[in-house]
Amino acid sequence: MKKLSFILLSILLFTACIKQDPPVEGLYLGTFAGRCIVNDDTIKITRTVYIQIISSSDKELALYHSENGDSGLESVVQLDGKNINGIIKTGTSRGGYDETNSFYLITHKDIDIIGRWEKLEGEYVITGGFESIFHYYHTGDSINADFPVNGWFTIKPRKE
């Protein structure tokens, strides 16, 4: 009897460790931190984003993502236990002149998430590959290659 109780308790604990409730509908503030290596230099990347989760289930999250507070684009990411994958649609570009008076353009393309997520107290942490946070550095004579980023993304409820 004790052995059966121990086995059942072990199964319940194992199941509880695997299954976590995803973020519920609402407003969130996200902080992305990552790095990529470009020509033997490590570039650190930090971005703050606004997220509105519009539907939530054990299988997927539907959300709006924005870097400047506007409505953004609707995206859907898939959840499977602690695994997460999908594409967050985004698009921003910025251009100007640097200290050498060369024109540059930086474009952030869609964010392709392949990783794991975990709820830590009131925050949700996603770690893994953000394979399409591409940064194009354009100067008058060249466009450097696109650079995938590895890092972590933390989202927490936003208080209005």
**Secondary-structure element series:** HEEEEEEEEEE
Note the total helix count.
Answer: 1
- Strands across the major sheet, in which order? 1-2-3-4-5-8-9-10
Largest sheet: 8 strands, antiparallel, barrel
Give unreliable regions as ranges. 135-144
Query: What is the percentage of strand-forming residues?
Result: over 45%
Rg for CA atoms: 19 Å
Average of pLDDT = 74
Q: What is the helical fraction, as a range of percent?
A: 10-25%
Number of E-state strands: 10
Based on secondary structure, the structural category is: mainly beta
**Domain module tally:** 1
Distance, first to last CA:
53 Å
List the topology elements.
Elements lengths: L1 H17 L7 E13 L2 E16 L3 E7 L6 E8 L2 E6 L3 E6 L5 E6 L2 E10 L2 E8 L18 E9 L3
Antiparallel strand pairs: 1-2, 1-10, 2-3, 3-4, 4-5, 5-8, 6-7, 8-9, 9-10
